[in-house]
Specification:
The chain is an alpha/beta fold. The protein has a single domain (about 10-20, about 25-65, about 75-230), classed as TIM Barrel (Alpha-Beta Barrel), CATH 3.20.20. About 25% of the residues lie in helices and about 15% in strands. The chain has helices at about 30-40, 55-60, 60-65, 90-105, 120-125, 145-155, 195-210, and strands at about 10-15, 15-20, 50-55, 75-80, 110-115, 135-140, 160-165, 180-185, 215-220. The strands form two sheets. A seven-stranded parallel beta sheet has the order 1-4-5-6-7-8-9. The chain is globular, with a radius of gyration of 17 Å.
Length: about 240
């Protein structure tokens, strides 16, 4: 399997369905909404918008990606780049089908990112104490406030835990938190809000001290990444720690 997406921290994306709604300031300039609603008219965004499941043929792609290759690296699949896998507007059967697909592809590492981690107990197809070994659970934390809210719930889950600090809208400190991985990125697109480079540098240093992998995705507006910030690390695959 080769790389099939421009997103630098994953090899591929898979969207079991399309559609979402805003839940926090990080959603204000949502690229998925701009693409799937405003540009292509595929779905209507928002609480009254319909979530649309992708095609049967599209759902076969991960099965093809999971076929053995000579590449020793496990492919990473970012799930739901155009949706949220814990969206409560989605029929429960769709999430069950996704869990079945994940179980059928143990050769892939599935990266499940959400802004709705508070829905995990009610909607996730697994318990906090058991998540398949090929599933990484992440939360978007665009500011300290949302990090404090969301990581408090994430850290209880027995899985590789990651933070998407994107779009970075204010400084963020880990404190005593110990995620396995932190992805850092400034906003891009029209009206992009500024990420101060010192926010990224301070977080990079804190990750180093905490033993967390740090991945610098992009600066605001996709400006060149300063040489000292060009750090692109990945977590050890099965680092199941709590904290």
């Amino acid at each position: 399997m080769g790389k099939t997406t421009e997103i630098s921290w994953t090899d591929s994306t898979f969207n079991p369905w399309i559609g979402c709604q805003h839940v926090s300031p990080g959603c204000d300039h949502c690229y998925a909404e701009a693409m799937m609603d405003a540009r292509y008219g595929r779905v209507q965004w928002g609480p009254r918008g319909e979530r649309k499941r992708t095609s049967i043929d599209y759902w076969q792609q991960p099965l093809r990606w999971a076929k053995p290759t000579a590449n020793p690296t496990r492919p990473r699949v970012f799930c739901a780049s155009l949706a949220d896998w814990l969206d409560n507007q989605v029929p429960p059967q769709w999430r069950s089908d996704l869990a079945g697909l994940i179980d059928a592809t143990p050769q892939l590492d599935w990266l499940l990112l959400t802004k709705r981690i508070e829905q995990f107990n009610r909607l996730a197809p697994w318990s906090r104490s058991f998540v398949p070994s090929n599933v990484w659970i992440g939360v978007t934390c665009e500011s300290q406030d949302y990090f404090d809210r969301r990581y408090r719930l994430l850290h209880e889950i027995k899985a590789i835990k990651f933070i998407s600090y994107e779009p970075a809208l204010g400084p963020l400190r880990l404190g005593k938190a110990r995620p396995d991985w932190v992805i850092c990125g400034g906003e891009s697109g029209p009206g992009a809000r500024l990420m101060q480079p010192q926010w990224a540098r301070a977080l990079r240093d804190e990750c180093r001290a905490a033993g967390a992998a740090f991945f610098m995705k992009q600066m605001t507006g996709k400006a060149p990444i300063p040489a000292d910030l060009m750090v692109r690390q990945f977590p050890k695959r099965r680092a199941l720690k709590q904290g």
